Each structure stands twice: as structure tokens, then as C-alpha cells.
Amino acid sequence: MTRDLSEETLVVVPAYNAHNTIHKVIEQIFQSGFKEIIISDDCSAIPILPILSSFKNQIILIEQPKNLGYGGNQKFLYEYALKNNYNYIVMIHGDLQYTPTLIPSLVTMLKYAKYDFVFGSRILGGNAIKNGMPIIKYIANRCLTLFQNILTGYKLSEYHSGLRAYNIETLKNIKFHEFSNNFIFDNQMLLAIIKNKYKIGEVSCTTKYDTNSSSISYKESTIYAFGVIKLTLIHFFKNIL
């Protein structure tokens, strides 16, 4: 029996202190036509179980007993996906910064255009600043993206999106459990995808920046930026030697 696209797809939601937005995120995922959802709450200060009571028995909610970190939380969710019978995995943050309405577009590109990995780009379309992206973040994004494009030979619009979709075979072939538990995890994933020469697709994505949006401190941002530079240099020299 053939399954439809929504049955083939698992939407994974890493959440941390997302109590103000998580209900709306799940509601919009359902509205987009996707009902296979797992949320991993990374030991938030305010529990989200009571907030999601209206979705009881419709979603899987895991409340982590200790904080796994941004990357660690994704590892948990991807391990779950690999153990179950799904063909496509969509990762979206629980803070509503990225819109769930793009999920059908991402998965359609995976299935019908045969992409291995698709992400929502805040830069594609040229409206990032207009949509509220802080100017400092925008400049840092553009500089790091230029640097990574030069050293990888790719022409991606950005490398730092939090809306991502994977073909299950892509996840199976990436040793993501060896990656960082912190914010650099996303960049490690993308560089591994590039290393394996997987087909990458992009979708223009408007984002929302407000007090509920996840944000890292300037110190963490600086650590992240240097981490990206280091990873990209390692990737470059490994591929030219």
C-alpha cells in the first residue's frame, strides 16, 4: 500500500524555552498537512506538556531530563527517525522563527526533484533585513557564507538555516553522532553533506525575529563563527591533499 507524503515524513522539533510559541508551531505543522510529529524539549525552565494538552495522542513529546545542547537534541531526534519507517525528515525549531508552511515545499523537493537535502534560506529573495534579521547577524551571515562558498566551491545562499529537510538515506550516511552537541552541529551537518556530494536544494524562507526567537549571545556567536572557520579550513585542506 502506497503512503502519501505526510505519512512518509517525520517532522522533528527541537525545543528549548519555547513555551510561548510551541502550540502555534504544532498547530501550523498540522495545518500544513503533516501529522507525524516528535518534539524534544531540552530540559526547559517551563514545561510544555500542559501547553500541548490539546494535541494529546496526536504527537510524541519527549521531555529530556537533562539539557542535551542544541546539537545533542537534534541527534536524539535523528536517531529516533532512523529507528522508524520514514523516508523524509524535516527539522524545524520550536520558537516559530521559521514558518511551518514551507514543510510541503521542502518535502516535495526531496521526493519529486530528488534532492538529498533541502533548507529554508533567509537570504534567498533578498528580504532578510526587511523581515527583521539584525544587521550584525546579517553581515556575519554573509561574510561566513562567502568564506564557506569560496572554500567549498559551492554557491549556497547561506549555511546557517534552522529549517532543514533530509532524505532518510542522507541521514543514514552521515555520522552525525560524532558531531558537536552545541550550535556548530548544523554547520557540521552541512559540510558533511557537501563532502558526500549530495544534491542540495534551497527554498526562500521568511523568518520572524522577536523576543521569542532563539538567539545566542555575542560570546557564543563569536565562538560559533571561529568554529565555522576552523571546520571549513579542515574541510578544504582534507579535500585538496
How many separate structural domains?
Answer: 1
Physical arrangement of strands within the biggest beta sheet:
3-2-1-4-6-5-7
Number of helices: 8
In helices, the fraction of residues equals 25-40%
Described by the principal axes of the CA atoms, the overall outline is globular
DSSP E strands, number:
7
Q: Describe the biggest sheet?
A: 7 strands, mixed
CATH topology: Spore Coat Polysaccharide Biosynthesis Protein SpsA, Chain A
Report how far the terminal alpha carbons are from each other.
49 Å
CATH class descriptor: Alpha Beta
Helix and strand content put the structural class at alpha/beta
Computed Rg = 17 Å
CATH level-two architecture: Alpha-Beta Complex
Segments where pLDDT lies below 50 for 5+ residues? Answer: none
Overall mean confidence score, pLDDT: 93
**H and E order:** HEHEEHEHEHEHHEH
